[in-house]
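Worked example

This section walks through a single chain of length 153. The input is the sequence exactly as stored; nothing has been trimmed or padded.
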Amino acid sequence: MDEGEGARERRRVGVGRDRHLAAAGGLAMSDATATGDGVFPLIVETGIGVDLTGDDATKAAVRAVEDTIRRVLFPGMRDVLPGRDRANMRVEATIAVPGADRVDVDDVRGRFPYGKVTARAVEGGHRQPNGLIGDDGTEGVILVAVAVIAVGW
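Given that input, the structure is written out below as tokens.
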């Protein structure tokens, strides 16, 4: 059943803050938190990153963020951003990884192509021996990081 061009246009344009919600696919206010003239989060995505041999928390965190970015497409995001400007996008990244205090958060933040990005590393993820013994006799480890990325404005 075709709803007609007029109905689609009314839903797309909407009124005030709700015009953004309508343009984003008719989300209800209960689905996201309205803050001023914005909605956050509008989209939440997850990813994982693994460092198999280096015990490098930053490498695992960056891979988790890149995994998330690679698997997501926001074709209508620009339409709901104020001024249709991706610089107005708000991105919050939380990465759970063993050795969170060793993560270079600036490196993680720099992996996002646009938006106002905040990133934080928290203790979590998974650490496990990898079965390899280094030249110095220490056992190697696998680090697994989990990223949760929230996007809105």
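What to look for: Residues 19 and 58 are 39 Å apart (CA to CA).
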